Amino acid sequence: MTDPVDHHTEAGWWRTYVFSVDHKVIGLQYGITSLAFLFIGFSLMALMRWQLAFPSQPLPATLFMIGPLVVGIAALLIGGRKRPWLGLSGLVFLGLAGMIYFFVSSETRMPGGIMLPEFYNQLGAMHGTIMIFLGVVPLAVGAFGNYLVPLQIGAPDMAFPRLNMASYWVYFIGGVIMMVSFFTPEGAAQSGWTSYPPLSVISPGQTLWLIAMIFVITSSLLGSINFIVTIIQLRVKGMGWMRLPIFVWAQMVTAFLLLLAFPSLEIGAILQLLDRVAGTSFYLSSGMIVGGRVLDIAGGAVPCCTSIFSGSWPTRKSMSSSSRPSALSQK
What we know:
The relative contact order is 0.09. Helix content is 63%, strand content 1%. The protein has a two-stranded antiparallel ribbon with strand order 1-2. It has helices spanning 13-18, 23-53, 61-78, 84-105, 117-153, 161-180, 199-202, 206-233, 246-277, 316-322, 327-330; strands spanning 289-290, 293-294. By secondary structure, it is an all-alpha fold. The chain has eleven helices and two strands; from the N terminus they run αααααααααββαα. The protein is globular. Among the domains are: 121-277, no CATH class; 289-330, no CATH class. Strand 1 and strand 2 (293-294) form a beta hairpin.
């Protein structure tokens, strides 16, 4: 009697480490990517701190670059194909060193190593965005949630494994677009991580920021749906709601809050993007004066909302005053 043939074929390297549907691997992907973004956000903050401490002195690029270069090269040599996560972290450190070199050598950002005010605004806006939307939230929800929730409720995997994979890669694409905005001629976003209009509509660098945010928000919505269905449907038999671990409850509540808040946030980002690229005026009021001239727009009397984050409406008094050019502006 012969042994039964195992028809199961082991997944290749790409399906195991890159396009995996295993919740543990996806959790590790979220964790490593979010930690990389947190390190980048911390580095941007370090550049801002140098400017505040020594405003008239050139940035010592060698001091800021030597650490990421050494760590990156060492991680690449130690990593290789057998330790892909370590090799990926090495690429992140090398990329950060290259980004700092690009900043220092750019005449439109840090001529002679001295930071321009516009570039300081870019660092402030991107630091806040990266730390919150690309770092803290994906680490807490995407990394720990994906890795631990199925284990704690006795589920074999997430309810929708392919949707889980898609959620990570949509988040990754959004993060890459956010980083690419640093290397465009107009630079990265300068309107803060809250993207307050009308400044965010008329200032340069905000278009790629909005596109990246649409990707990141979509990723969070996909992940929230997956978490809710997984917790409701895939709990092990006998695990009632009152027996759920507190961590699973936290992920459940967080997923519901994201589903309540992020659709309106994404719609606001899309409307603001249309204001920038399609000539609409959802966030621009008639009679606005920019650069000493009245904008030729056919919008309403007021912006649609004061912020895509707050969603608050202006009062009638502020509506009437915001639509009329002031005497000082006319002079």
